[in-house]
Amino acid sequence: METKEEILRIIDVLNDTYESEEAWYGPSVVEALRDVTPKMAELRLSTNTHSIAEIVYHMTTWRIFAVRKIQGDAEFDIKTQDKDWKKFPIVDEFEWEAIQMELSLSQEELVSELEKIESDSFLEEFVPGRDYSYYTMIHGVIQHDVYHAGQIGLIKKAVKGMRLDEDDNYGAFDDRSDFDQGSEYY
């Protein structure tokens, strides 16, 4: 009889990375997003960085990719920039809630698909259309979460350090801002 002990361990790590309050490396994804406001979510620290909203969308996109591949969809792929890194110039309360809900639903769907797998041997199979195994792909989602949770944390710290007025719309942070002009923030 085949076992699925490794799959169950992977599910635990995937869940810990996503929502644990005791992840050993630092904040889980849910913890990192906990106090992000819609205005913070739309902010870009510079013109060549992503916003928190874009990062969350990107994380959701790759969870959906993993789900579709686990389901055996050899044709599914992420081929356009908009499918991978959708732009969110303005994020209101409703949109921010929707972006976060889509991430949560993609997490639930990924875990559900993994729970359906009956044997650890599945992890050794190659992902349709790719040159890596399901084991590598699923661990990639976990590593991806840790990486982006760290980015979100850095963006939050930077935004809070900007000392923006309450009425500020947290628009794009310009690299030529007061920081280059001897401002009070030094």
UniProtKB/TrEMBL annotation:
* Residue span, DinB-like domain: 31-152
Transmembrane stretches, by residue range?
none
Q: Which domain of life is it from?
A: Bacteria
Pfam family membership, one: DinB_2
| Matches recorded under Gene3D superfamilies | dinb family like domain
Q: Which InterPro entries match?
A: DinB-like, DinB/YfiT-like
Protein name per the record: DinB-like domain-containing protein
